[in-house]
């Protein structure tokens, strides 16, 4: 995992350019179609290769029963990834959508239809957004064990701004339908 730059150190060479603050962001990644491990690994690699993004954590992999998905949907593999980034939230969303597309994500079918790859922004620093394209924090994250459990493994004291501590939300939601798959290891370069 690469180290993100120390935000307190000012590089005088860059002072004349556009300076963007470094923000911590949390992403939820899932797959329930095709080679699920390959798809998750591809998403981790693509995020790590993104300029202005530094991977700071990749959670254990969870096998999770599909939530609010069409009858007959297969189980998901889910992870949570933490990053530091100087990208804006809309640019990060564009990147997430491009990574989904690169791994064969098709849209336009039923709500929550099986997908090769889903990359959702859960929080981006303390950024709030509520428009057609971007809602932050993610409005359903606090109800989803498949987000809360892997996130809690990475950061036991994390909070969803305006919603509550991840540990308490996970306690409330419970761990039914999710199993940690320690036999699956993703590589982080
Ligand atoms: N925080 C967010 N993260 C990702 N996409 C978001 C977010 N807020 C709004 N969107 C919008 O949601 C649109 C549909 O995304 P998608 O089809 O992946 O939803 P989903 O992940 O299946 O469902 P859910 O939002 O319940 O997780 C995206 O094109 C994006 O513009
Ligand atoms: N288990 C599980 N269920 C879901 C998931 C997901 O990633 N995992 N994503 C959804 C829409 O984003 C809807 N339902």
UniProtKB/TrEMBL annotation:
Keywords, in A-Z order: ATP-binding, Folate biosynthesis, Kinase, Nucleotide-binding, Transferase
First-tier enzyme category under EC: transferase
Pfam families assigned: HPPK (PF01288)
InterPro entries per the UniProt record, alphabetical: Hppk, Hppk_sf
Annotated catalysed reactions: 6-hydroxymethyl-7,8-dihydropterin + ATP = (7,8-dihydropterin-6-yl)methyl diphosphate + AMP + H(+)
Entry GO MF terms: 2-amino-4-hydroxy-6-hydroxymethyldihydropteridine diphosphokinase activity; ATP binding; kinase activity
Pathway the protein takes part in: Cofactor biosynthesis; tetrahydrofolate biosynthesis; 2-amino-4-hydroxy-6-hydroxymethyl-7,8-dihydropteridine diphosphate from 7,8-dihydroneopterin triphosphate: step 4/4
CDD domains registered for this protein in UniProt: HPPK (cd00483)
Residue span(s) of domain 7,8-dihydro-6-hydroxymethylpterin-pyrophosphokinase: 26-155
Entry EC no(s): 2.7.6.3
UniProt GO BP: folic acid biosynthetic process; tetrahydrofolate biosynthetic process
Protein name: 2-amino-4-hydroxy-6-hydroxymethyldihydropteridine diphosphokinase
Annotated organism of origin: Nocardioides pocheonensis
Lineage of the organism: Bacteria, Bacillati, Actinomycetota, Actinomycetes, Propionibacteriales
């Amino acid at each position: 995992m690469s180290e993100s730059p120390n935000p307190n150190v000012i590089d005088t060479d860059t002072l004349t350019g556009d300076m963007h603050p470094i923000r911590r962001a949390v992403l939820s990644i899932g797959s329930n179609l095709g080679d699920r491990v390959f798809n998750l690994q591809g998403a981790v690699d693509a995020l790590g290769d993104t300029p202005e993004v530094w991977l700071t954590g990749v959670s254990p992999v969870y096998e999770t029963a599909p939530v609010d998905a069409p009858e007959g949907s297969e189980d998901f593999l889910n992870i949570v990834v933490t990053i530091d980034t100087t990208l804006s939230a809309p640019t990060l969303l564009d990147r997430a959508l491009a990574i989904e597309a690169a791994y064969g994500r098709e849209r336009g079918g039923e709500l929550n239809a099986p997908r090769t790859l889903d990359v959702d922004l859960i929080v981006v620093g303390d950024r709030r957004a509520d428009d057609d394209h971007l809602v932050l924090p993610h409005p359903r994250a606090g109800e989803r064990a498949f987000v809360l459990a892997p996130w809690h493994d990475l950061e036991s004291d994390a909070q969803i701004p305006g919603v509550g501590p991840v540990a308490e939300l996970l306690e409330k939601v419970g761990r039914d339908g999710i199993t940690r798959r320690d036999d699956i290891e993703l590589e982080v370069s």
